[in-house]
Amino acid sequence: MSAFKAIVIDKNETGQTVELRSFDEADLMDGDVTVRVSHSTLNYKDGLALTGKAPVVRRFPMIPGVDLAGIVETSSHPEFKAGDAVVLNGWGLGETHLGAYAEKVRVKGDWLVPLPAGLTAEQAMAIGTAGYTAMLCLMALERHGLRPDRGPAIVTGAVGGVGSVAVALLARAGWHVVASTGRPQEADYLKSLGAAEVIDRSELSGAARPLAKERWAAGVDTVGSTTLANVLSMTKYSGAIAACGLAGGMDLPATVAPFILRNVALLGVDSVMAPKALRLEAWGRLARELDLGKLAAMTSSVSLDQVSQAGREIVEGRIKGRVVVEIS
Ligand code: NDP
Questions:
Q1: How close is the Cα of 162 to the center of ligand 1, in Å?
Q2: Whole-angstrom distance between the N-terminal and C-terminal Cα of the chain?
């Protein structure tokens, strides 16, 4: 196959174009492993790239898609050979390096991890960067020494991709999960994933006081801005919040009061450049700890020609759970 199907983002004088078209293998970027992609997924960042709403794409033309699962076709990397099932999350895929919404990619073997035992390619992409980031957040809270006996855990943006997986993982780990959402009609969905309480996100959206009534010991925040400021102000003494998202904004209108008066910690979580050892640990734990029935219940799928529309929906906050992109 010297040409293959891909979603291609390009830029002209009038703005950004997105089309599903044929792409020549000769135009792929450098890398020591070529992978036949079977599945990808839709993350918030992919929505930003597809809509051009934020400058995620750093070169044009670009094939978007930050996550892939597939089979190695050719490799000169010592750890991978033809036929190996692999997963890739981040490392600039779909931003600076031609990405996963394509039947083929050429990448650095150092970026790949083996498909975790016990997961299919489709399940790995149902998890995707969103789910792997939710696990990185849980691991950060645990590294901080937090355990479920310390009190409840809050998850913001709970109906979204990171949020849905975080609810399921924290509940499975024994936490009393408080799920915050702007979609109260999804309360039964959140409870089916393991949420013990569902609160309306308007409780966390007003201007934050320096300190408010202590409500939770831990949290996973996917929203940022005033939501994170409120979450911090309501965190119990010596608690911690893992912050990974900006769905509500990149600012943080907070005070230092929770840090200096309640010993609260703010734990930053990045998935894109996370070192390989951390990725392998996160994927191993996801394969063992995430309930695959719950994963299936939070997942829908689209084809490559439906992904642009789905990208618009995710930036409008209208996607529930996770979306797999079926490629080949
Ligand atoms: P989703 O769109 O699936 O989820 C985001 C959720 O946030 C929405 O479903 C909604 O939840 C809530 N939300 C959206 N807009 C607002 C708003 N204006 N105010 C308050 N809440 C809002 O995205 P993902 O789960 O894929 O990603 C979530 C965030 O995490 C994104 O900002 C993304 O960029 C970031 N991220 C960061 C990573 C990292 O490496 N640090 C990796 C992966 C994601 P509800 O309807 O329940 O209120």
A1: 7
A2: 13
Q: pTM of the predicted model, to two decimals?
A: 0.97
Residue 138 reports pLDDT greater than 80: yes
Ligand 1: residue of 66, 162, 183, 312 to mutate (most ligand atoms within 8 A of CB) is 162
Token code pair at residue 125: 């992409």
Atom in ligand 1 nearest the alpha carbon of residue 314 = 2
| Any atom of ligand 1 within 6 Å of the Cβ of 159 | yes
The answer to whether 308 and 106 have CB atoms below 8 angstroms apart is no
> From ligand 1's centre to the CA of 320, what distance in Å?
11
Domains of the chain: 3-115+298-326 (3.90.180.10), 128-268 (3.40.50.720)
Is the CB of 243 within 6 Å of ligand 1? no
Q: What gap in Å lies between CA 102 and CA 81, rounded to an integer? A: 21
Backbone angles phi, psi at 213, to 5 degrees: -55, 135
Tokens 């102000």 appear where? 233
Amino acid at 13: E
What CA–CA distances, in Å, run from 65 to 60, 94, 313?
Answer: 14, 5, 16
Going from the Cα of 12 to the center of ligand 1, the distance in angstroms, rounded, reads 29
**Which residue has tokens 């479920």?**
148
Residue pair 300/314 in contact by the 8 Å Cβ criterion = no
ipTM of the complex: 0.99
The residue among 316, 311, 265 whose CA lies nearest residue 137 is: 265
Residue where the block lists tokens 């009038």: 14
Tell me the average pLDDT across 165-184.
Answer: 98
pLDDT tens column, 293-317: 999 999 999 999 999 999 999 999 9
The kind and range of the H/E element at 135 are helix 121-143
